[in-house]
Amino acid sequence: MKRARVRGAGVAALTLLSLMGAGPTAQAEAASSCALAFCLYEHDKFEGAEEEFMFEGWNLCYSVARVNNKASSMRNNSAARVQFYNTSNCSGAYGYAASPSSSDGDLTNNGFDNKTSSIKYVRP
To answer: What InterPro entries does this protein map onto (predicted)?
Structure first.
């Protein structure tokens, strides 16, 4: 009887450790639906609100709605460059460009943290 209890306690401890090992970052990345597109995230390291874009063609402008002027990280899983604009309708010069198949966990180092209002999908 003691063996069964010890084994049960060991299984419970292993289960608890495995759940604790999957911290907030691992859980956030696993929950992300950004597989074949481009995503902006509200916070650094792909956390917070997520806005996903599925591009329909080259040189089209897309308005940022959910994380407008709040994007702090991005994933570009597309095959093209994505240009970031701090104004609506992709007007004026772009301030940052994400290379194809790239990610950036903190847009602060590019001077474009919390500034994105629109994006454009352009050929690489």
So the answer is: G_crystallin-like
